[in-house]
Amino acid sequence: MAAKLFTEQEKESIVKAVKTAELNTSGEIRVHVERTCPEDVLDRAAFVFEKLKMHQTELRNGVLFYLTVDDHQMAVLGDAGINAKVPEGFWDEIKETMLGLFKQGDLAGGLEKGILMAGEQLKAFFPHQSDDVNELSDEISFGK
Q1: What is the pLDDT of residue 24?
Q2: Domains, the chain, ranges and CATH?
Q3: What is the number of helices (H) and of strands (E) in the chain?
Q4: How far is CA 45 from CA 50, 79, 131, in A?
Q5: Among 77, 65, 5, which residue's Cα sits nearest to residue 35?
Q6: 1-37: per-residue pLDDT in tens?
Q7: Whether pTM exceeds 0.90
Q8: In what order do the strands lie in the sheet with 28-34?
Q9: Which of 43-47, 100-104, 123-127 has the lowest mean pLDDT?
């Protein structure tokens, strides 16, 4: 089961990274982890994005970090509001940094680093607002 891939301390560190990243931006960040991906990774990430109702944020500024451990696949998927503003290749540096840590066996560290980098980059396009409401859960969701 995917939920057993991380220790409780690792889960807490990932959630803390989400909360920290969201202090810089009105963007909403979620993490979803599965053991395997039953289809194309981007198609699956888009399905999970919708299942988590990430497309329902006011500014359409949700970001999903999708990871499958056994298949060694990942996707960073931004909603329409983000994709309309960010330059092409916006997520590439984040993904490369994460992959470097994943290859060292540090899944939690890779997710934390990627999430914090996303928060830093998103603040230029979606700065944190004083009336910002946390529209999505910061908790990690897990598939099979």
Answers
A1: 84
A2: 28-122 (3.10.310.50)
A3: 5, 4
A4: 9, 11, 29
A5: 5
A6: 777 889 999 999 999 999 999 988 888 999 999 999 9
A7: yes
A8: 73-78, 62-68, 28-34, 141-142
A9: 123-127
Q: What DSSP string describes 65-128?
A: EEEETTTTEEEEEE-HHHHTTSPTTTTHHHHHHHHHHHHTT-HHHHHHHHHHHHHHHHHHHSB-
| Alpha-carbon 54 to chain mean position | 11
Contact call for residues 95 and 101 (beta carbons, < 8 A): no
**CA dist 60 to 34, 54, 85, Å?**
24, 8, 11
Q: Which residues contact 20 (CB under 8 A, 6 or more apart)?
A: 116, 119
Distance of CA 141 to the CA centre of its chain: 11
Nearest to 22 by CA among 142, 141, 140, 133: 133
Quick check: 17 and 53 in contact, CB under 8 A?
Answer: no
The Cα 102–Cα 111 span in angstroms is 9
- The stretch 134-144 carries a mean pLDDT of 82
Structure confidence by residue, pLDDT tens digits, 38-95: 899 999 999 999 999 998 888 899 999 999 999 999 999 999 998 888 888 888 989 9
Token pair in block for residue 133: 């409401």
